[in-house]
Amino acid sequence: MARTRNVKFQHRGSQSGGADGRRPSFSDVSGTSEPGSPTRGKTENGGNDDEKSVETQTSEYEKKKQTFITRTIWTLLMIAGFFVSMFAGHIYLIAVVTAVQIISFKEVIAIANVPSRARRLQFTKSLNWYFLATTMYFLYGESVIYYFKHIVLVDKVLLPFATHHRFISFMLYMIGFVFFVGSLQKGHYRFQFTQFAWTHMALYLIVVQAHFIMNNIFEGMIWFFLPVSLVITNDIFAYICGITFGRTQLIKISPKKTVEGFVGAWFMTILFGLALTNVLMRSKYFICPANDFGANIFTGLECTPNPVFIPRTYSLPTWPASPFPTSITIAPMQFHILVFATFASLIAPFGGFFASGLKRTFKIKDFGESIPGHGGITDRMDCQFIMGFFAFMYYQSFIAVYKTSVGGVIEIAITGLTPDEQVEVVRGLGKYLYNQGTVSEKVLECLQDTARRR
Q1: Distance, CA of 40 to CA of 29 (rounded, Å)
Q2: How far does CA 245 lie from the centroid of its chain?
Q3: Distance of CA 198 to the CA centre of its chain
Q4: From 144, 281, 330, 381, which residue has the greatest number of CB atoms within 10 Å?
């Protein structure tokens, strides 16, 4: 057995072993430095590894630098584009919201798509876009009819579409539904029904909520700009407060979010909201509804301001010899902004957490690559959709002033009166306007002659 231990094995690349017949150790190798020996080769490899490590670090630094530059440039471009479209007028901003709506829908439905199966099923993508078009037709039509009744209901071509809009929308959806059922193929049922359900989820979470953001623009630019600004501000201060004094993890699905950052951002968002509201209330371009699509920041708008923008004096509790004021003058909107800022800070971020969970489920980093350096549009809009939906619901419930409009009167007259009764209304209204000195006698005679010929 002793002889067996002294047997020397020929090692690859070595001319001789150690004195005891063992494989040369690291210390043995480092002790030799003959040119062309295996020792020299290993030393050179070590040097190459160090050079590769330095090159890798340099490459990573350059990559991060390029990403930062790209991200910064596109951030500035998006901010500039946002303000330009907002100041240019309501119609331009609506076009931006529509584009965001469509791109976000495209990004979300792409997550669950399986290209190999989609190629075998001809109409999978076509049905997705058909349902999007049908949904947008219904939602946009509802908005146009609601806000522009006085135009739509008096037009001979548009009147049938306006009065039967919901039925037309329903039948369009039914066509898509029947076509989907007819396109089901054996062996692909699960995939097709998954696509069907996924498409409808995307329609609800993106298209429907974005529709209410568009309605906020119609109600007044402030109801669009304020919620958007609050979400962005909260996101910024959540990051700043989190890296400054964040210690406690907030939610597992988003490990970098901290309780300290969450609460600190809430406080800062309230302060920012109060300051921004105080500025926006001074401009009628922001507080007036969209009654003129030709208006912009320079021409402005004219309207009777909503009562929430008019300062009121509130009495404060008093005590004998109290040095504090007994009353305070403030616009009610300053109280409403506390609710908006609180929702943007405590509830809207969960839209982002939901999106994070969705991405983790499908093992993706971003929803897409629509914005270089940022990912997809949906990555930037995940909190905005739910915030815009809330802003519309809150406005309609607690702030909107409901009164009879021209469009409402015309709608009642068209849908609730016979043609003879409508003529009688016109005749009576003409007499009233003549007695008030609003119209001339010639106009009144014209109305009377028209009614007689009828």
Answers
A1: 9
A2: 29
A3: 19
A4: 381
* Cβ-proximal residues to 5 (8 Å cutoff; 6+ apart), any chain: 21
In this prediction, residue 320 carries a pLDDT of 77
- Smallest CA-to-CA distance from 193 within 182, 180, 206, 203 is with 180
> Taking 80 as the threshold, does the pLDDT of residue 51 lie above it?
no
- Cα diameter, the chain: 135
The amino acid sitting at 392 is F
Give me the helix-helix angle, 38-88 and 90-111, nearest 10°. 140
List own/partner pairs for 71-77 with CB under 8 A and 24 or more apart.
71/372, 71/373, 71/374, 72/373, 73/373, 74/371, 74/372, 74/373, 74/374, 75/373, 75/374
Query: Are the C-beta atoms of residues 328 and 316 closer than 8 Å to each other?
Result: yes
- Cβ contact 379:366 at 8 Å: yes
> What phi and psi, each to the nearest 5 degrees, are found at residue 329?
-105, 120
Q: What is the Cα–Cα distance from 400 to 394, expressed in whole angstroms?
A: 9
Q: What is the mean pLDDT of the chain?
A: 83
Query: What angle is formed at CA 424 by the lines to CA 423 and CA 428, rounded to 5 degrees?
Result: 120
pLDDT in tens, 434-443: 788 887 878 7
pLDDT digits (tens, 9 = 90+) for 401-422: 876 667 777 777 777 788 777 7
Q: What is the three-class DSSP state of 330?
A: strand
pLDDT > 90: percent of the chain: 42
* Pairing state between β 249-251 and 254-258: antiparallel
Tokens 């950052």 belong to residue: 261
Whole-angstrom Cα distance, residue 330 to residue 314?
A: 8
Instruction: Look at 180-184, 254-258, 391-395, 429-433 and tell me which has the smallest mean pLDDT.
Output: 429-433
User: Is the model more confident about 59 or about 102?
Assistant: 102
CA distance 184 to 282: 58
CA–CA separation, 195 vs 202, rounded Å?
10
Q: Which of 6-10, 270-274, 376-380, 402-406 has the lowest mean pLDDT?
A: 6-10
* Of 180, 171, 178, residue with least CA distance to 199: 180
What does the block give as tokens for 158?
A: 């548009």
* DSSP characters over 82-94: HHHHHHH-HHHHH
Q: Please provide residue 107's backbone torsions phi and psi, each rounded to the nearest 5 degrees.
A: -65, -40
Q: Among 36-45, 204-213, 257-266, 386-395, which is the least confidently predicted range?
A: 36-45
Query: For residue 192, which of 110, 127, 108, 102 has the smallest C-alpha distance?
Result: 127
